[in-house]
Design a protein that fits this description.
Helix content is 9%, strand content 63%. It is mainly beta. It has a domain of 126 residues. The chain has a 20-stranded antiparallel beta barrel. The termini are far apart.
């Protein structure tokens, strides 16, 4: 069999796999329970589509990656009694990455399996303590890569440390994240470590009502990036988000909401340097909502 014939056969097998997947979705009935959908337009062009089920679960999401030629990244989720049991994503419909989820008798996620073209490409196993808190994830990718993530908690049940041991062939690397909180349980600081070296340091600020006002990224003792949130009258959603680098605003987002609290418009202004001058670039995103009868 020649190279061209092999490629055609491979494409045909991928197409058959995708059609079987779609048939399974249709037969199960999970693909028919869309309650409402969202369309996002950027500069008046459709860039994102989402659909939700009766319990507010995300069913599908499509994100435009390129306009010409048109290219979309598509995701789908299937639920059973409110629990995610299958999901997947693809750009080309003949090359689907598929995930399946199984749960223990307490309803906690026990295993996630990744497959492509009918072949298992990765598995993750989950372990919990007696309180139902996740204490370990053991993930396998192919035959050579393994990642074990472990979690340690405060007496209040908040994660205080997450450790990740990555084994790839004969190489091993240990990463960790340390978390600290205020008396209300709000995260104040997250420090990322590679062995004994600090690789990230993120700190958060809140007002007296518990709303997050700011986030600072610290590197070698200096603040390299700050994010500031400003809230509207009702205080439930940030209406302005500003990104500052070295004290200068590099990105600003204004959010507008309808009476139901759903975002209806987003204006993003990015400040870029051209010929030594900071010039703004504005992007307008509008959101439309549709309910099924």
């Amino acid at each position: 069999m020649g190279t061209k014939e092999k490629r055609q056969k491979q494409k045909m097998m991928k197409t058959i796999t995708f059609l079987i997947l779609l048939s399974a979705l249709t037969i199960s009935g999970y693909a028919q329970d869309t309650v409402f959908s969202v369309r996002v337009f950027e500069q008046k062009k459709l860039v994102e589509k989402r659909s939700y089920g009766i319990h507010g679960n995300l069913l599908t999401k499509e994100t435009r990656l390129n306009e010409e030629p048109e290219l979309w990244f598509r995701e789908f989720m299937i639920y059973d009694k409110g629990k995610l049991i299958r999901s997947g994503h693809y750009i080309d419909e003949v090359d689907v990455t598929d995930y399946s989820y199984t749960y223990n008798d307490k309803g906690l996620l026990e295993k996630k399996r990744e497959s492509k073209q009918g072949l298992v490409t990765g598995e993750t196993f989950y372990k919990y303590n007696n309180a139902g808190k996740l204490i370990e994830e053991e993930a396998y990718f192919g035959k050579r890569k393994k990642i074990i993530s472990s979690y340690d908690y405060t007496p209040e049940g908040l994660v205080k440390e997450r450790t990740e041991i990555i084994t790839d062939s004969n190489r091993t690397m240990t990463l960790s994240e340390l978390y600290s909180y205020n008396p209300d349980g709000k995260m104040l600081r997250m420090v990322g470590m590679n062995g004994s070296d600090t690789i990230s340091d993120i700190r958060y600020k809140y007002d007296q009502f518990g709303f997050r006002l700011g986030q600072d990224v610290i590197s070698h003792g200096d603040t390299t990036l700050s994010i500031v949130w400003v809230y509207g009258r009702n205080g439930s959603h940030p209406t302005i988000e500003k990104h500052l680098a070295d004290g200068f605003v590099v990105r600003k987002t204004k959010n507008f909401f309808n009476k139901a609290g759903r975002k209806k418009k987003e204006v993003i202004t990015e400040y870029r340097v051209y010929s030594g001058k900071m010039k703004p670039e504005k992007t307008v995103r509008k959101y439309s909502y549709y309910w099924n009868d």
